[in-house]
Amino acid sequence: MSATPELLGLIERLECEHSLSEAEYARLIDGRTPELADALRERAVRVRKEIYGNAVFVRGLIELSSWCKNDCRYCGIRRSNDKAERYRLTPEDILACCREGWDLGFRTFVLQGGEDPWFTDERLVPLLQSIKAEFPDCAVTLSLGERSRESYQRLFEAGADRYLLRHETADAEHYWKLHPRELSWQHRMDCLRALKEIGYQVGCGFMVGSPYQTSAQLAKDLKFIEQFRPHMCGIGPFIPHKDTPFRDEPAGSVELTCYLLSILRLIQPNLLLPSTTALGTLDPQGREKGILAGANVVMPNLSPVSVRKKYMLYDNKICTGDESAQCRSCLSLRMASIGYEVVTSRGDPAGGIEGIRNSE
Ligand code: SAH
Asked: Can you give the CATH number for the domain in which 332 is found?
């Protein structure tokens, strides 16, 4: 209890200076109490409202493929999970999802998938060109994992605006515990830097409560984000998947995820912060709690219902049986119930991409 004034002081400083030392971030995490979480949340929401008001941005998530050449230990669609059902959408399927999404008010499409070698640049470039030609008022976000710099450049030139590539952990040793040796932490970090240099709006992020994670590593994640200055940051609780080596590991917590969302809002006030599906999976009110902690984005599913159950990154993922229109209206109602409004807009970061780039 006696630690509270000290930690309140840290929160105050974070709001003013947008920076703490790694040791201080770790202190904030280890010393958290419900009282401190309230103080942090209040400030995060105030800052968020000054910039984004009550608006919640939506992104339509289209899950292109459950094929993956990687073997990440936490992920249900890892290559060695022979129980995973595999599918791949065709470019026509993807365009049909975008059409449905546009009618529902989506102005951002997120094309996410496992690292499926079928999606070569030769196939993605014409797809991106078609999407941008048909929906010039929409942003396209890619989340297709690690590719070469040349590939990122070609996809950017074909019209992709944003790229989501969670760094997963800012600690190289921790990275090895979550991934097989053939994957390299350095390469993933290099990809993030290349994406930013090319001119994408870039999203990084990590799982909260992933196996072996310590508060010192979370503090490193926060420091990395503070210094890298992404446009977006996706964080959500780790949730075990029954057919992975981490099947018996405990899930991360909604409470800590929300606490970190509030810290991230104070680190970078205009950051685009999704309240993730994983939060909604662990707690029926999880996405509302994320928004109430300072998040400002939701990403309902736009994938065809026929494939949704096959994109199972973790157990019990929600919204796999609903039509896109249901997901969209359900989320609008949920946001309205807590005083927020889902808006029809591309949802770019306030201050624009230049605002973020030059603010260092
Ligand atoms: N292939 C792409 C997309 C990966 S899926 C890429 O490599 O970026 C998107 C995110 O889901 C991952 O970055 C990971 O952080 C998250 N994820 C995967 N398995 C998960 C699990 N078991 N629990 C919670 N989140 C998970």
From this structure: 3.20.20.70
Q: Among residues 309, 106, 334, 75, which one has the least CA distance to residue 210?
A: 75
Taking only the tens place, the pLDDT of each residue in 283-292 is 999 999 999 9
- For the CA of 168, the closest atom of ligand 1 is 15
User: How many structural domains comprise the chain?
Assistant: 1
pLDDT tens column, 25-81: 999 999 999 999 999 999 999 999 999 999 999 999 999 999 999 999 999 999 999
Backbone phi and psi for residue 258, each to the nearest 5 degrees, phi listed first: -65, -40
Q: Would the CB of 241 count as within 6 Å of ligand 1? A: yes
CA of 2 to the centre of ligand 1 (A): 39
Quote the domain boundaries for residue 312.
5-358
Asked if 63 contacts 97 with a C-beta cutoff of 8 angstroms, the reply is no
What's the Cα-to-Cα distance from 60 to each of 98, 219, 258, 302, 314, rounded to whole Å?
8, 31, 22, 5, 20
- Whether 313 is in the pocket of ligand 1, judged by its Cβ within 6 Å, is yes
Among protein residues, the one whose CA lies closest to atom 13 of ligand 1 = 166
Whether this model's pTM surpasses 0.85: yes
3-state secondary structure 81-144: CCCCCCCECCHHHHHHHHHHHHHCCCCEEEEEECCCCCCCHHHHHHHHHHHHHHCCCCEEEEEC
